[in-house]
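INFO worker-7 received task bundle
INFO bundle size: 2
INFO processing item 0
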Amino acid sequence: MKSTALQERRERTRVLTSVFAANTIRSNSIEYYSHYERIICMKKIISLLMVAFMAVSMTACAGKIATAEEDTRPLGEMRGISAAELIAEMGAGWNLGNTLDAEGGETAWGNPITTQEMIDEVYKAGFNTIRIPTTWDGHMGEAPDYTVDSEWLDRVEEVVGYALKNNMYVILNTHHEDNWVKPQYDELDDVKEQLSALWTQVAERFSDYGDHLIFEGLNEPRIKGGASEWDGGTEEGRDCLNQLNDTFVKAVRATGGNNETRTLLISFAAQAAPVGIENLTVPDDKYVGVSIHAYTPYCFTYEPVGLEYNALYFDKSCASEIERLFSNLDETFISQGIPVIITEYGAVSKKLDKDQETTNVDEVAKWTSCYVSTAEKYGIPCVWWDNGYYTSGNELFGIFNRNELSWYTPEIVKAIMDSLPK
């Protein structure tokens, strides 16, 4: 009995010991494997974090590289030179007329879509400056923001880029805004507000561009059909125009950056009438110049009604009027340290015979030589007004065939280039 009881106790002890040992081993195994799993898990988490970090870093780097690659705009540099210094560099100029200024769209007035190849040909001919007349009316929202259509801004910037890729100088303006830009006291504050909003947006869009991009605030501002519309305007109109010029300059300058020293051009009432020129207020800003339109003399450069007033041939009287024009500009502006640029000039092609086959292109070439060489004498660059019309259309100022990428009148181009210093 005693032996049996002892054996039973020993067996129970052995079993309990075995169970305890097994449990201990199991517990240690569980603890070991739990610890191992935690290590594996932590390694996985660390690996995931490292992968995520590397992915974010690579994305950021790729973003920077992509941004650098995508920004292929021909920005140029802002050298901080005065308007006088910059305008002295501009050389011969050409207008991309009746295109971005056309009411109804780029091709609405019969000219083709502007291309890089088109501007390249203009540059190859020797033109170093291009003026891009641009109408914003119809591409702006309502008050109070007057938001400019982003697609229109994109297209304008694209065309500007065509010229800047050739390192040309570009004059960007507001053109056919007659429906709302009215130099009169009535509603003048509203006009100022809209003009300021427009130029603020344009200046901000082009803020990164260098000094080869020039802004021209207004184009022939006047009251259509008003008193002295083409002869200097009225006293009220001239006062309002000075205020609008001031609004334009302040709006651009307020955007800061490159626009603080960008060359700006202010205008006067339409044509270069003495009363308009003499009453123009020029800001005390060395980065401001004056834009002039001068089709002189009118009887030769246009096709006026009445044959007795229509000059077909260039003569001494034409030369005298040209000299008088530039002498007046010199006295009023150049001699006072205020730079001037003729942003529009030209002469239409006129028929010399009844069959309408022979034009006065040789006479226009003579006129051009006199005009440009006289302007050069006074340090005033000139920008030919080319509306694309040569054989048909309103006012035949076209000298470049934009469809064929050739020159209608190489004689005139030669006259321009030969009149400039080599």
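INFO item 0 finished
INFO processing item 1
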Amino acid sequence: MMSFEVPFEALGLTLVHFCWQGAVIAGAARLVTLAAPGLRPGPRYTVHLVALIAMAVTAVATFGWEWTRLAGHETLPSDVLSVARVSAASGFAFKDVLPWLDTIWALGVIGLSLRMMGGLWLIHRLSAEAQAVPAALEARFAAAVRAVGLKNVRLRMHAGIDGPFVVGIVRSIVYLPVSAVSALSPDQLDAVLAHELEHVRRADFAWNLLQTAIETLFFYHPAVWWLGKTLRDQRELACDDAAVTLCRDPLTYATALLELEERRPARKLSPSLAMALGGKDGSLLARVRRVLGEGSGEGGGRSPARPALVAAPLIVAVLAALAVPVTQVAAHSTEASKKQCRIKAAESVGGSGVDVKAPKIVDATMDDRQSSDDAGSDESPAAEATDADVEPKDFWSGLTPGPLDENRVEAFKFKAGKMA
């Protein structure tokens, strides 16, 4: 039967492996964008979205591989596994840290999941308090929906929100603040609605839910948050381009953005999962300059590469610190398994009536095991090696084999072959 520790140990190893896997994937995405500096926001968004999904797929594949590998170890004889665990307990074992990693990770996931659930609940509450828009605006919105080729999209206004946004997957809803309905001109409203309808056409709300779920699972990795911020920036820039194309006047759309920002009230509702036009990180002014042809295509007020550059030395240091204990644990487990297989082979030969003098191992744990075996046997133990004969870095140099004739050697090989 498979031990219940296997999935948890596989989870911990997956979280550790994801440190370098996420960094490599994020670095590859960055190299692609650097190699093609002229990419528009749409393709740039696709590159980073593929990188984020690749991170999740890689982590799932790693978890499955680790689970299969660890479950395969469970098929070894139970006494071999018990001795390996006893030997590992005498020193530092990296897998002893894995339960703590799993616990910290689970607490972080639970906290961020509660935040995500709170955002969904806020969206549900908004739908219950929304108001219908004037008939003239509803007619203009219906025409815009048909022009884009969409269906099942509704327009509502709300007095408690701080800017336009879109929610919903199958039946999307575009929310407008009451101040926008009264302050913006018809052309400005058309440009704003075109931006929101582009979110619906691109299914950005659904992709944002997937992005938030991945950010929740891998919250500890800076590269995940860098990709998330880049995706949000490029998503808004792509919708800005669609709005400018539809209204055919960048100045109209830019003045609409500034008007909405000036009328943005303090302490108003803004669901974190919604596709908000104004953004949440102070990048609106940079977007306005870009619409007017004064900015670059990167988007955002801060360089998206800065968090990754800051976190890169930390990730390298963590990986270097983890590499040594992982190697030590693997080597220690291999030596313990070899040691126990030889002991069991010798005991099996001795139990079959063949006189074999088992070697004496200079080890506290093996001494206890050997003494209990010797208590029920009339055979005299082999000579014990002194401390001066044992090299501290070579475990097998502490063995002193007894004399064996040819018949005993053949019997030992036969029994050992049957165990293998």
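INFO item 1 finished
INFO post-check item 1: Residues 306-351 form the longest helix (46 residues).
INFO post-check item 1: The beta strands are 131-132, 153-158, 165-167, 172-177, 275-276.
INFO worker-7 idle
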